[in-house]
Design goal:
By secondary structure, the chain is of the alpha+beta class. It is 31% helix and 26% strand. It is built from 13 helices and 17 strands. The strands form 3 sheets. Strands 9, 10, 11, 12, 13, 14, 15, 16 and 17 form a 9-stranded antiparallel beta sheet that branches. The protein has a 4-stranded parallel beta sheet with strand order 3-2-1-4, with helices on both faces. Helix 1 packs across helix 10 and helix 2 runs parallel beside helix 3. The chain is globular. The structure holds adenosine monophosphate. The site of adenosine monophosphate has 13 residues, from strand 14.
């Protein structure tokens, strides 16, 4: 295959950044790119997508449409992602035509939980104990090894709790086994975590890295509900979490942004649950509480610019607005002083759909505790 046309990095202003995926992560990346003088071209199957609404050009086509992918690649200077489940042959095609950042090998790794966990363990990073499950007898063997409860997950195409089931003692596990798609699966030991955290780290071509402060993430119905920045953990744990994220970015030879989600066990051990080589919902607070957001860092890394300081000028709480229920509170959110709303331009508020978020800032060091938190989010 022909090598990709070399782009002149750093990309000069006016260059076109191609973004695969049209969701809110692409929208906020495109807005950050515009502030840095770039134009974005969105590739998405969805017409009028959140990202295309704020971008220079859009291609509306399926991720398997090689003719459209080819034309898209020819029309841009560099290609990046807000959605990582692009089929492998499409990725190959794109990377044969233009620089793809982060590279296709990272995308492939993050598309497959088994490969991802194997890679993490190989570089010495702890995860929940896990076993591959290919068939019903493999499930029995994995349950015998890991015990119950345990979490059965598809290795591909899982997000927001989709593609997984908690298996408990005394239940019929074969129902979950039959219903979950696609196979194969991974069975993970159930982690009775104290909290969930994440770290976002950006890395440039020459190996410079900048990590945002680790944050705590709370989920509702498997979807991120609230992020607290910084995570209320001892400094040593925060430093360890950042080091883990940096090590992963370095070992992946990442150019771009990486989200690393971790469980914190009751004894303070950090276990990596998942990585995503793109902006992440748990980094939305950086738009309002940092000198440069996760989206700006993503664009800077992809465009070959130096990274900005990831410092926080405020503590922050971010609340997702999911589905019709949360959208019903929008008039109150807009009328509440101190809430900073971000809406994604989606017209239909289906249950479970991320429609927007809001952030509330606090002076550094004064993030509210449990009781204050409820008041901070009240609209
Ligand atoms: P995931 O799709 O892997 O990000 O998982 C979604 C959510 O399910 C996580 O954020 C956790 O709240 C929960 N979860 C996933 N894996 C486990 C596990 N091994 N033990 C306990 N909870 C888990």
């Amino acid at each position: 295959m022909m090598p990709a046309t070399p782009a002149a990095f750093p990309l000069p202003p006016g260059s076109v950044i191609g973004i695969i995926g049209g969701g809110q992560l692409g929208r906020m990346s495109a807005m950050a790119a515009a502030r840095l003088g770039y134009k974005c071209h969105i590739f998405s199957p969805e017409p009028d997508s959140p990202a295309s609404q704020v971008s220079y050009l859009s291609t509306i086509a399926d991720y398997t449409d090689h003719v459209a992918l080819h034309r898209f690649a020819e029309a841009v200077d560099v290609i990046t992602f807000e959605f990582e489940n692009v089929p492998a042959d499409g990725l190959e095609l794109l990377s044969s035509l233009k620089p793809v950042r982060p590279g296709p090998a990272i995308l492939r790794l993050s598309q497959d939980r088994l490969q991802e966990k194997q890679f993490l363990n190989d570089i010495g990073i702890a995860t929940a104990p896990w076993m591959e499950v290919r068939d019903a007898s493999g499930l029995e063997a994995a349950i015998a090894e890991l015990g119950l409860p345990a979490v059965l997950k598809t290795t591909r195409l899982g997000y927001d709790g989709k593609g997984q089931a908690v298996l408990r003692a005394g239940e019929n596990h074969h129902a979950s086994f039959t219903q979950l798609q696609p196979k194969p699966f991974v069975l993970e030991g159930f982690i009775d975590f104290a909290c969930e955290i994440s770290v976002l780290v950006a890395r440039t071509e020459n190996g410079d890295m900048a990590a945002f402060d680790p944050v705590e993430n709370r989920h509702k119905h498997h979807i991120l509900d609230v992020t607290l920045a910084p995570a209320p953990l001892p400094l040593a744990s925060l430093a360890e979490a950042s080091e883990i994220a940096r090590l992963i970015a370095e070992k992946l030879d990442l150019i771009g942004l990486l989200a690393v989600e971790m469980f914190v066990t009751p004894t303070g051990t950090l276990l990596v649950n998942e990585i995503a080589p793109r902006p992440h919902n748990s980094g939305h607070w950086t738009l309002d509480a940092c000198f440069a957001s996760q989206f700006e860092q993503h664009i800077r890394a992809v465009a070959g610019l130096p990274l900005a300081t990831p410092s926080r000028h405020a503590d922050a709480v971010m609340k997702n607005l999911v589905g019709p229920e949360d959208m019903a509170t929008l008039p109150a959110i807009l009328a509440t002083p101190g809430l900073i709303p971000h809406l994604y331009g989606k017209t239909e508020a289906r249950p479970g759909r991320k429609m927007g978020h809001f952030t509330r800032l606090f002076p550094k060091g004064s993030l509210p505790g449990e009781f204050g938190l409820e008041a901070a989010l009240k609209v």
